[in-house]
Give the backbone structure.
Amino acid sequence: MKASRLHEMSSDELAQELGELQQEQFNLRFQTASRQLDNTSRIKQVRRDIARVNTILRERELKAGEQ
């Protein structure tokens, strides 16, 4: 997921996206534990996407605090 696409989203949409990514991460960990996961690189992608969303949310939080 591109950071530019995330910057275009509203805070509510980002929060929803974060929830979906966390759910996907949970499912991927479950699949890994049961040895059903084929694409193990997806875990890394999801983890980084979660970090991107959290970073953008935090930037907005700090920006709102300054004003």
Q: What stands out?
A: The chain has one domain: 3-66. The CA atoms of residues 2 and 16 lie 16 Å apart.
